[in-house]
């Protein structure tokens, strides 16, 4: 684990869980798997504090535990899962786009609490939606639960592993830690619950105090609330399914940028023969991407997250699944599928002739795949870095090496049309940054410099790792900058919150406009301008974090798919 990753993980843990959890998580990240005793000694915290911090981390799947052969339990931090916290806003926004406000809040609640029972998540979301509605309107539990079922059916959420039931007559001593497991066929099975009810609005302060006293009295008397019908069945967000959706979006965009741009006019081969009929002018310009989107939608649940291809789909099945508004014939669909299958980038591959022809989509990224998403992957991600750090001439040399693979320094000078001194300086600068590498090819066994070819080439994996490292550093710098902005304006923010609370209470009691205006004037004009500048700066930092995370996702996917290659 690099120092940039460690620093970013520590900042994420501190921002979302506090200093104690950050200290425990940072200790595990630095030292690797450790038992509780060593963890207490390393952090200097009380044993109870360390235990509670571990409970929080395990609750959010940020730490795993394993029973050792001698019976001790060791805890290990999951750095890759901690870094996913940075992508939470994107998960939530995707759920909102696909399933509306109920889907957005369900995913948000599950990410906020780690895992929740279905009944608890539905009640929380219904209450939150009711709060945003007009007086007299409420959100019904059935509407939220139907969205929950749709999320489970499309595998965006999944059940958490549970402790398997042990035989009652077993006399074996209990294990030091439970082994959690769940069958794959049960991961997306939603329990049959009759959730009847409506969302509730927040009570007034007096009613809340009365309810708290009542709950405390019940606890003292030994009473307990009714056990929920799905007690013991917990749900969590399936992050890999979201990543599969992101890759599908990139693939559809790649098809649209390459194929649909040219399907509005006839293609001709080098010999002049027409490859596409003139009738293609009559069809929507986004047909190719819509065909790919339909195929991805049909195989979204059946395709494993690490698979290189989708499941084979017949032409007849694809035709029946096209959106109702797409009035294209079966023959035209076959022409589009043949066009996609014949494309050099091989977005779609033909795997058989049954059912009018069966087709698959390549979803693997990296050298094993012959295409890259439109967000240049990873080569285009490097071009802006080169332009910013080294200038346009270095970017020209980099593109040249990508295209020609291996070149001598003299060839680089000639092809790039750059003076020898400048080309040599630029090549050495990129070599020092691991953007390019130097390969020696000797003519004789003695490796004499005068009888050796020195070829420059681009090591894509090393360049991708370097760029990923810089992205981690950039996000950490952005987070620290946001925290600095908040600290510098802490007093002003607290004052603004107090004024907003006073205004809310006065509006609830029906105060006059003059009284409200008098309270608003507690914040002066310069302070209001300072607050607006702070809000604008924080929004820019948040947007920058999301943009950098998109690049991180592309690079991580590329490196992961390359490492999986046999």
Automatic annotation (TrEMBL):
Q: What's this protein's family per the entry?
A: Belongs to the eukaryotic RPC3/POLR3C RNA polymerase subunit family.
What subunit structure does UniProt give? Component of the RNA polymerase III (Pol III) complex consisting of 17 subunits.
Q: Give positions of region: Disordered.
A: 199-230
**RNA polymerase III subunit RPC82-related helix-turn-helix domain: from which residue to which, for each copy?**
8-65
Q: What is this protein called?
A: DNA-directed RNA polymerase III subunit RPC3
GO-annotated molecular function: single-stranded DNA binding
The main location class comes to nucleus
